[in-house]
Design a protein that fits this description.
7% helix, 40% strand
Length: 329
């Protein structure tokens, strides 16, 4: 089975379990979501990371008892010409198809799950995709629309994906409300960002490190769980490099001397459940030209009792992956 984590996870992070430690931090619960948003424009500065693309994998469980679960992927990306672009993959093993029109319908044929390649293929029914981005509004820092849009997928006479504030209205008008909805949950999310170098004199962004770039997300780590604000920041001052991850403004992970501790992991507890935080900064520090820094937060599922290993990927929890680049790749 191809998992959502393996679908979006960079290869550099898959080996991080070798760095496992027993340290754990409990994060006080206050108030993780299907959406990840950049910080509000009123707080944004030139040190705010610019989001190149946002890829979200959704796991759909149809109501029909004989129907297999589906793993769908939407990717929002910046375009050098015109508004941000959208692509869609109807399964974990399918290549993404770019949706060039701002509004349209596209049909995907059924797949029996076979294939001559070495990878396992996902079986899926015939699927119809409907989308409308003509009135979509975007945040200045992200290619993912804020509102005014919908993306809806239908397979096996069920709605298997409904994204956007206009999705429910479209489904009601298109199908007159006479169509069941599958259980759909975000399974994984990956943000690719470009981090601008901090310059003195800019407004302060972070109370602990005012000149450091910070990428902020609002995520929901489990079904029915509350949203949390997750912030990932890094300061690269010579001899005093730092990486930190905070949840709802409370520091959960703090790593220093990153040229030595460029890979590592720590477990934090959010809403009483373990969330593994892993980072790999080797490419950022030691490659020429520079690679990317990767930070991953991954909730353990109810079936897991330890840090994620490759053989446990069949039942993963939600994961958030942030890939940071010094310059656009």
């Amino acid at each position: 089975m191809v998992s959502a984590s393996s679908l979006l996870l960079p290869s550099s992070v898959r080996g991080l379990t070798s760095c496992a430690s027993d340290g754990a931090v409990r994060v006080a619960c206050t108030t993780p979501s299907s959406t990840l948003t950049s910080s509000s424009s009123s707080a944004a500065t030139s040190t705010s990371p610019s989001v190149l693309s946002v890829a979200v994998a959704y796991r759909a469980t149809p109501r029909a008892p004989t129907a297999a679960p589906l793993l769908l992927r939407l990717t929002w990306s910046r375009s050098p010409l015109g508004p941000p672009a959208l692509s869609f993959a109807p399964s974990a093993s399918s290549p993404a198809v770019q949706l060039r029109r701002r509004r349209g319908t596209r049909f995907f044929p059924a797949s029996d799950g076979g294939g001559g390649g070495g990878g396992e293929q996902q079986k899926r029914p015939q699927m119809a995709l409907f989308w409308d981005l003509t009135a979509a509004r975007y945040d200045a820092t992200s290619p993912e629309p804020v509102d005014g849009f919908y993306v809806v997928a239908v397979a096996g006479a069920e709605v298997v994906l409904a994204v956007g504030d206009l999705a429910a209205e479209f489904v009601k008008a298109k199908f007159e409300g006479q169509i069941p909805k599958a259980r759909v949950l975000p399974a994984a999310r990956r943000d690719r960002v470009v981090v601008a170098a901090a310059e003195p004199g800019h407004p302060r962004r972070h109370r602990h490190h005012p000149d450091a770039p910070v990428h902020t997300a609002r995520v929901r780590f489990a079904e029915g769980a509350p949203e949390h604000e997750v912030a990932v920041g890094c300061r690269a001052a010579s001899g005093d490099e730092e990486l930190w991850v905070s949840v709802d403004g409370k520091r959960a992970v703090h790593a220093r001397r990153l040229r030595w501790n460029f890979r590592g992991n720590q477990t934090v507890f959010v809403d009483g459940a373990p969330v593994d935080v892993m980072w790999d900064l080797h490419g950022w520090w030691f490659r020429d030209p520079p690679g990317c820094a990767v930070v991953m937060l991954r909730a353990r599922s109810a079936l897991e009792s330890r840090l994620w290993l490759e053989e446990e990927a069949a039942a993963p929890g939600f994961s958030l992956v942030v890939q940071a680049f010094k310059t656009p790749p």
